[in-house]
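Here is one chain, start to finish.
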Amino acid sequence: MMNYQIHRPCHINVLPVEILSYIFTLATHDTVSNNDYRRRYEVPFTQESVTMPTVLASVHRHWRNVALSTSTLWSSLSMSLGQVVRVKVGPDADGERAYTTFLDVQRLAAHVARSRNSSVDILIDTRDPEWDFEDDEEVCSTHDSTRFSYATFIPHILDLLFPQMYRWRSLTILSDTWGPLRVALERLSLPTLTKGSGAPRLESLMLMRCNEFLGHSDVFFPRTQHMFDGIPFAALTGAPHHDLSHPLPKLRNVTLVGVHMNWTHFSRYILGAGLDKPLSHVSSCIQSLELSQHCREVRPTFDEFTGILKACPLLRKLVIRVSGPRFDREVQWSDRPVSLPLLEEIQLGYTNVEDAAMLLSHIHAPNLTMLSIEYANHIASPDDEDSGRLLTYLATGILDLCDVSTEYVSSHEAYSYYSATSKDSVAKTVKTPFPHLERLSLNSVSACMIPFSLLMTATPKLRHLSLCRTPNALAALLPIQTPCADACTRIIPCRALESIKIFSAEEQTKHVLDFVLRERERSGAPRVCNIDIHLEVCSADASEIGGYQVVEDDIVGNQITYGECESDEEDPFAPGGAFNDPDFDEAYNFLS
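Its structure:
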């Protein structure tokens, strides 16, 4: 008897084409978000989103037909240094003349054609993994094609993409140096190149100079190219310079990191400030805005910054990190701050406490629910600035409250101070600017107990608290005994607290946390049900492993895991180390 083997088709191949196409779309675009707190920025798509369609189309004929017929699979357009090809031109030439460099656009052209009429996301990544933080002033002016050749390719890339501008959904340009970004800005500011089509589908615009050292300088580098005074992104609007009726209708997210421009033109021509419409008639507006890493010389003035905010009445998220307005001496506190009624989240990274408090005082956001505060001083700075004034403003809404002592105070003294400031003479005047705050993140914020205690008591709706290298904040959650009251009556700060996340270098943090939680529960507070601790404790053999151990303690699961952050670097403060490099210090003028 002969055995016959029946070949049944694979189950996935019998699915309807629409279902298979949807699965391909999920595999290409639906990536898992990275929740690492140290990762600040997310590009619109990953490298897998670019390569996955080709992989799927290479399995067999049926999959290829489905992939090629699904135009949204090919909507991620990416160009990076990997597409810069350097080849030898002939045996007779020597040195650099023996090589030529060109841009391989074959994959880009294929994705443009296969995406057909679908909206596209564009990523131009000019970052160099081997970049040595060298000043790019001379190489930009001479267009040295052997080292920083990508700046010369930016016009070629944009020329290929300009005919498809009506399909642009997001545009992201990343660079280590200023050269490629300046060339891109100049190219995107020539409306004649797009023949008036513009980018009506554009939703997100991100330009990043990925060098967080430059924001701490007073002057811009490179010096010869610091000013760009044209109409920014005029090619995207597709409108003449004098026409204010064509701001980008679908633009919702703008991120400018280390990239500056004429801020008045930016708010007028891109954000639509010149339209001057009442809030009830605004149908399209920026909902997420980030200005980060701008040296003082190129930051917007106070009037320019308030003009930017006024042009975004529907703003929901605002990120200001080592940027923001230049507060000159004539800028005073105003009783008429910019009203942002829909603003839900503020992320503020500051280097000057007074400027940070002044900035927040000029924003009226009564419905704010998420606030992230970070002292973002230069990494090599040995001192932490006292942030008591900022915390006090967040608790009371008052800028000129009496000075808070930076000396150590005991818990009893801190509570006594709070009780004193809570009397009728003060209680009638203080009002927290963000009464509906539910999420609070404090990173490297240093102050004595008093301002922390004021802040925690002033945020009764707080549900989620994140503390990173912020001493004294945890103890401020202890119940406060009110004067002239029954011994069992206590004020419980943040009574609605549900979760605490801690990143700390202090070994006693876990013991302090245990004591705080025990005292809160004894006073009748609901139990905090979600607690994560990430400790950085100096190990006994730190010299061998190069620094700290990271100890992750998950209280909920009662499981402790250990890991080491190993580093092969020498002492960073030794001569020639990362924080003791004379050439670097002289180039960026950070240290004397």
